C-alpha cells in the first residue's frame, strides 16, 4: 500500500464534497453513484469476478477506516467501501438518517455499481445500517459481518450507564440527542472531539496519527458533516422502531458473523445478535479496542475471508 495522497484528478463534478481532500489507495478507484437521489462515494477495487464485499464505517470515520483491510481482501474478492450519507465524500442530505432509509440508499448504490449479491461488513454506525439493510434486502445478501456495535432497538441499551468505568463508552449517545447544543459546542472544535473518540476508544492511544485525526475531523466539519453525524443518533429511535416492526415479520436468515475485540464496547457480538438471527457465529480479535479494522487489520481481513469461504 502506498502512502495516502491527495489527487485532484479524481475530483469531478460528481463529487459533492469538494472541500475535503481525497485520499487514494493503490489498486482502488473512486466512484460516485446516484443512490435514489443521494450521491454516495464508493471506493472499488480487487478481483472483478470475485465475490463482492461491501464495507461500511461508523462514527467518526469514513471509508478510510478500511484502508488497511482492503488490500488484504483484494486478491480474492471484489471490494467496495462506501461512505454512508453524510459521511466522507458522500452527499449530506437534509432528509431522514434512520437506518432503514439509509440502508435503502446504500443498497441502491451497490446496485448502481452492478453488484447483484454481496457480503456486507460494517462497523459501529455502519453496523446499525447493515442490520437494517439485512432486514430489508436479505435476498440480495450472502452474509453480514457486524463489528463492535450496539444496534438501535436490539442491543443498544435504553439507559446510559452512570458508572464511570462504563459511562465513557456511551455518554455521547445522550449528548448527541440534545437539540443545537452539540453544534454550538463542537463547531470549530471538531478535531478535539474526533480525536477523543479515536484515541480513547482504541486500545493504544497511538493507533491514529495526526494526519488521520485531521482527515476524520475535516470530514465531520465540512459541508454539514457534523449535522449529519448527529442525525444518526437523533434518528436512532426511528431506526429502533423500524427494526422492531421488521422483526415482527422475520428474523435474519443470512449468516451473521459478530466480530468483537478484547477491549471493545460489545464483548460478544454474536451472542448479542443471535436472538434475532438463525445463523450467528462470532470471533474475538485480541489486542484491539473499538476501532478493530485500524488496530488489527490482518485479523479482521482473515475473519472476513474465512466467513466468505465458509459461506460459499
Helical segment tally? 12
- Beta-strand content: 15-25%
Q: Major sheet: size, sense and barrel closure?
A: 8 strands, mixed
Helix-strand pattern, N to C? EEEHEHEHEHHHHHHEHEHH
- Number of DSSP E strands: 8
How would you sum up the global shape? Answer: globular
Question: Would you tell me the overall average pLDDT?
Answer: 92
pLDDT < 50 runs, ≥5 residues:
1-13
Structural class of the secondary structure composition?
Answer: alpha/beta
Strand order of the largest sheet: 1-2-4-3-5-6-7-8
Termini distance?
A: 28 Å
Helix content: 25-40%
- Give me the Rg, rounded: 18 Å
Secondary structure topology:
Elements: E1 28-35, E2 38-46, E3 52-56, H1 70-73, E4 78-82, H2 99-112, E5 118-123, H3 125-136, E6 141-147, H4 164-177, H5 181-186, H6 190-201, H7 210-221, H8 225-234, H9 236-249, E7 256-261, H10 269-273, E8 280-285, H11 292-295, H12 297-311
Parallel strand pairs: 3-4, 3-5, 5-6, 6-7, 7-8
Antiparallel strand pairs: 1-2, 2-4
Helix pairs in contact: 2-3, 3-9, 6-7
Amino acid at each position: 500500500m502506498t502512502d495516502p495522497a491527495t489527487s485532484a484528478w479524481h475530483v469531478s463534478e460528481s463529487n459533492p464534497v469538494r472541500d475535503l481532500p481525497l485520499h487514494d489507495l493503490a489498486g482502488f478507484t473512486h466512484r460516485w453513484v446516484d443512490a435514489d437521489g443521494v450521491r454516495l462515494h464508493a471506493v472499488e477495487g480487487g478481483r472483478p469476478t470475485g465475490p463482492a464485499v461491501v464495507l461500511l464505517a461508523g462514527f467518526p470515520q469514513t471509508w478510510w477506516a478500511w484502508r488497511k483491510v482492503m488490500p488484504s481482501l483484494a486478491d480474492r474478492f471484489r471490494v467496495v467501501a462506501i461512505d454512508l450519507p453524510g459521511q466522507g465524500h458522500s452527499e449530506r442530505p437534509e432528509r431522514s438518517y434512520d437506518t432503514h432509509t439509509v440502508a435503502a440508499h446504500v443498497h441502491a448504490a451497490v446496485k448502481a455499481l452492478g453488484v447483484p449479491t454481496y457480503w456486507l461488513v460494517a462497523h459501529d454506525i455502519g453496523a446499525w445500517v447493515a442490520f437494517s439493510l439485512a432486514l430489508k434486502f436479505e435476498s440480495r445478501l450472502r452474509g453480514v459481518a457486524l463489528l463492535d456495535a450496539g444496534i438501535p432497538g436490539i442491543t443498544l441499551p435504553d439507559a446510559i450507564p452512570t458508572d464511570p468505568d462504563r459511562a465513557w463508552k456511551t455518554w455521547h449517545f445522550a449528548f448527541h440527542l440534545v437539540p443545537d447544543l452539540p453544534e454550538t459546542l463542537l463547531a470549530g472544535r471538531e478535531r478535539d472531539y474526533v480525536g477523543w473518540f479515536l484515541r480513547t476508544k482504541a486500545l493504544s492511544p497511538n493507533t491514529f496519527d495526526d494526519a488521520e485525526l485531521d482527515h476524520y475531523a475535516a470530514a465531520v466539519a465540512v459541508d454539514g458533516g457534523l449535522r449529519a453525524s448527529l442525525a444518526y443518533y437523533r434518528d436512532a429511535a426511528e431506526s429502533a422502531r423500524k427494526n422492531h416492526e421488521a422483526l415482527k415479520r422475520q428474523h435474519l436468515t443470512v449468516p451473521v458473523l459478530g466480530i468483537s475485540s478484547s477491549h471493545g464496547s460489545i464483548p460478544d457480538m454474536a451472542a448479542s445478535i443471535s436472538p434475532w438471527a438463525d445463523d450467528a457465529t462470532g470471533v474475538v480479535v485480541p489486542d484491539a479496542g473499538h476501532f478493530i479494522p485500524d488496530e488489527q487489520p490482518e485479523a479482521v481481513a482473515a475473519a472476513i475471508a474465512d466467513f466468505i469461504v465458509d459461506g460459499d
